[in-house]
Input
Amino acid sequence: MTPFGEAIRKLRARKGVSQKQMAAALNVSPAYLSALEHGQRGMPSFDLLQRIAGYFNIIWDEAEDLFLLARFSDPRVVVDTSGMSAEHTAFANLLAGRIRHLDSAALAQLTAVLENAVKADGKGS
Output
């Protein structure tokens, strides 16, 4: 499951609707919605994101958070290290090969390291 899928599932639970009901209201198939929740589809279109926000009648800040989650929930990530150092390429490949085996604590540590490095560098994502 992706962070976006988890958020959708929580919104559905809060509203008390099934995937089938939500899918019908959004004019998508229940299979597509299920695949989206389980991380078997890439990022939904902006149009679908807007329809989801409207369906749940969420305020702008919450909708923005949902859109950001969708952006960071693509299960098929591509890291392009062309033009970067050999160390960058090696790191990206090492992470790709071992990410499946990292536990929650290791993920939290790596996330903190990356976020702190970005803050120290002064550059956004």
Q: What stands out?
A: The radius of gyration is 17 Å. Residues 86-121 form one domain. The chain has a mean pLDDT of 90. The CA atoms of residues 71 and 122 lie 21 Å apart.
